[in-house]
Input
Amino acid sequence: MMLAKQWLSNARDVMAQIENTQMENIQKAAEAMANSIEAGRWVHTFGCGHATIPVEEMYPRIGGFVGFHPMVELPLTFFTHITGEMGVHQFVFLERVEGYGVEIMKGYNFDPRDTMWIFSHSGINNVNIDVALEAKKRGMKVIAYGSAAAAKGKQTRHSSGKTIFDVADIVVDSCAPIGDASVPLKNHQDKIGPVSTMAFVTCVWMTVTTVAEILAERGVKLYIHPSHNVPGDTTAKQRLDEALAKYKERIAGV
Output
């Protein structure tokens, strides 16, 4: 199990780097998000491919709370057919199509008090940059999480000449290696054991818990998604219904 331990060591190193270098930026990001949620508005969350996993992780999710609005574009996330309909080839093509993100943004109503939170490992693909630029046009603060330092110098695919990290108001570095996979394998060119998802999810919960901390200190009531599988918790269903009702109330404006 030597390679298992090597991956675990790599993952721990990334988490340690996040803790050692990104706490200030996470605090800044959390404050911007808290302002949006306190105003009764949204933190919109977006990513492509495996960068939709942190979007799906935060809400709806046990321990998450109302205020985060997932924007998940199905052709950019559902590629588990691998080949054939909605396969990997189509996904790789679509995330590089400039203008697609502009069309995605037309499907929602936004407010300058909203925050746009985008996950992008490399920061160079067009859909994410489209969404970020459109969010800025609408007066929103844009927050980008990704491998910013490792991606420095990579050529953007967008005609603006900018990466997602150039566009964003606040950047949190996921500290994952730009190649993502982290464990060399005997007799193979490509590494195995990616760490970007673990890094993103680590950053998500460090951020979301900080948002909750800020709002609780301000006296804002959070509508938390409870576990409904705990024996003896007789009000879990009621609390879940309250959270979903509050989400529905807010989403009516989106």
